[in-house]
Design brief:
The protein folds into two domains: 6-153 and 365-387; 158-363, 3-Layer(aba) Sandwich (Rossmann fold), CATH 3.40.50. It is an alpha/beta fold and 390 residues long. The strands form two sheets. Strands 3-4-2-1-5-6-8-7 form an eight-stranded mixed beta sheet, covered by helices on one side. Strands 11-12-10-9-13-14 form a six-stranded mixed beta sheet. Helices cover 43% and strands 18% of the residues. Helix 12 (317-332) packs antiparallel against helix 13. It catalyses: dTDP-beta-L-rhamnose + L-arginyl-[protein] = N(omega)-(alpha-L-rhamnosyl)-L-arginyl-[protein] + dTDP + H(+).
Amino acid sequence: MSVKASWDIFCAVVDNFGDIGVTWRLARQLVAEHDQRVRLWVDDLETFVRLCPTASASAAQQWHEQVEIRHWTKDWQAAEPADVVIEAFACELPPAYIAAMADSGRRILWLNLEYLSAEDWVVGCHALPSMQPDGLHKYFFFPGFEQGTGGLLREGDLLDRRDAFRNDPQHREALLGSFGIELQPGAQLISLFAYENAAIPGWLDVLAAGPKTTQLLIPEGRVLGDVARWLGVGELGAGAQHQRGSLHIAVLPFMTQNQYDQLLWCCDFNAVRGEESFIRAQWAGRPLVWHIYPQEEDAHWDKLDAFFELYSGDLAPAATDALRAFWRAWNDGVGSGEAWCAMQQHQMMLQLHAERWTHKQVANGDLAGKLVFFYTDWLGSVPVSSAAAP
């Protein structure tokens, strides 16, 4: 049984929507499903407004979906610390807030919510304490794909909503119709959300020359420059539609999180990037390719390979090799067209595998639920200072 508590989640928006996307979803779920009181501190409200159009980009304090949103500024204003404090993705808490935590006289759980990784060391590091000189209790909390990790962010009714959406074709027609897109008979639907990517031209060449009609749906984002150059147009914006051969391209406006989920559910294949869309594509239960954020000294390849080893663990060798080749080409920028054609020979097997993977991750629990359980369990434990007393 969970304990009702107050939560402070701190989010520093870096250069994309992943950080705020994850923390906003987490905050809403803690309130809606676990009856927690949540205050989300955001340092970039303009980015938050893109995800929550009803929000204000200038309000110091506001409420949305029963979550309190506070503007986190350099001029820190004193605030009473919450019972649980989440430092999301290595952002640094205000020193004055940390001091207030230490001076509160209460047991406060301080969690460093880490980035998602499938590397084998994650299980061993998850939930490890980092003792602070001021007596605070800080722990590392790792989302992950295996038992012994923090799981993935997933609302309790997500798969039911997904299945209800798919079981009624009118839902797909209504969503795409709202963006002025008409479904082509027999077309395969693909969503594209990526960083700048040298693999795009070769892949589009193959789609345009293919025997099957493809509708490529591209939410506004950084990959549009590559697509525009391939089309030979100056720029692409929301509402633009182009056709070349068998390929129909449509640019969608920036979408809310619920709309983006539905877009993933519509499609037969999803190209995603970063962390937030990567997780949501897995819940869609469709084949996908992940454009991982490039890191210094090519550290991202280790993360990509680690996930792929887990993901393809029970996939037939031929399908595994074909899928790996496309993922490598997609992230390396070379040979994407040929790799795509080879992968399509295993389309049905990859589809079934994606659905199995979804069910496997459901069995691993969800991030919000595991966070609440961790706090409840921690609250019932004997404090270190008490355990050490005579």
